Please model this.
Amino acid sequence: MTPSRTKILFVHNALTEFVRLDLEELHKSFDVTERKEGSRFINPFALWKAVSSHDVVFGWFASWHTFLPVQFAARLGKPSVLVVGGYDVANMPEIGYGHQRGGLKKWISARTMLLATRVITNSDYSREEIARHIGLTNGSVARIYHGVPDKFGSLSAGKREPFALTVGNVNRSNLLRKGHEPFVRAAASLPNIRFVLVGSWQDDAIDHLRKISTPNVEFTGPVTDEALRNYYLRASVYVQPSLHEGFGMSVAEGMLAGCVPVTTRLGALPEVAGDAGVFVDSTEPSAIAEGIRKAIDSSDDVRASCRRRILDQFPIANRGRDLERIISAALESRAS
Model:
């Protein structure tokens, strides 16, 4: 079956940036139907009909929303391709994060991954997590890095304002997982540097952050795409002191915009930042402040090297090509 004739059922539970990018890439080569499952209460009859009328199920994350689609595809003899890496493969009880901590969520996610025809993940780190927690070895899981489209173009020369940026949803989980709390606390040590946290306020975490913040910290709430682009282009430093990252799309976007990344060495962050980043050895506010202090006055050449790394290592065309290859291989395996 040629790609142009292949019908794909694209299943997700939230159209985040990286999910949307995959959807756009697949539309270039396949006939794609998007199906969002935003609740655990799925209509099995409608879902069975949808799977039956498509050639391939393509799912994002191994959880409740992909469990039945992958099961139904197997029953119908149709291939399924599953992209995983993040909460579905993580096991971090110390911060209350990850399906692999145990219980029904662990069983659901593991069962979904083991039943899929092909499994894709977005970093070597996530592939190691899958091998450790699920038992799927590197030979069973394809590592395909995210593609990062260039929204910025050439960079303007000249010194940037002293401005440290981080981006992410503001919620209780991300206080530690994304490092929002130590980022805000680090601002007290650098009163002449502007600290900005861009992201939607999803629970009472914003109240906690406001209580511990100093006057040089700004919380924007949700912003438009154009406003976010401007924040990236104005910032000197992009900060992501995460405890877990399956990739780090915001880090990559910051680097494309010429921000010098300040990150931990945890998760997939070293794979994204490479030798262009400033790494901190802990998530203590003092360590983060020191990393920002080192990165804040970086030269135009350093900023250009950050941008060049993302352009070279994570082009969006590579992601689309590799997804097409995996889907074609899944189809062939079912046909043989």
